[in-house]
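Hello support,

Our group uses your service weekly, and this is the first time we've seen a run hang past the timeout. The protein is Transcriptional regulator. I'm not sure whether the cause is the sequence or the server load. Input pasted verbatim:
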Amino acid sequence: MVDKREKLMNSFNQYGFLTFKQVIDENLHYKTLLKMLAEGKIDAEEKGLYRLPDIYLDEWFVLQYRFPKGIFSLETALWLHGLSLTIPFNMTMSFPYGTNTKNIKEADICPIILRSHYSEGIIEIERLPGQFIKVYEVERVLVECLCPAI
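Update from on-call engineer: The timeout came from a worker crash unrelated to the input. Re-ran successfully.
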């Protein structure tokens, strides 16, 4: 029989990190996770995002996890698609109408609030193994950058 710690470590070994949703979905024991956190065997990157001490979590992935409704757009998306040589100073993310932007702005993200067409043209890019971020497809990004009033 596999004990709780081994089961938890087996889940960590796939990509080196776990989310709280994965802990619940895989029927893992949260108290065991908290004990391992207290012992220093794992680290908490964000609320509900845990990683092994020797694993690097991409800052883009962490922001995507923190703001799941956000989609990387405009200059940020150009850079992520490899169409810009300039690394954005502030990340730009698009959000659906009605999103509270207080915490987003505090995280130094430039929020774009969209009333329509928010969910059109979303793709996922894998930054590091298992670390996916949502970004608008190249064609949409180019059109938005060239004609921002559309």
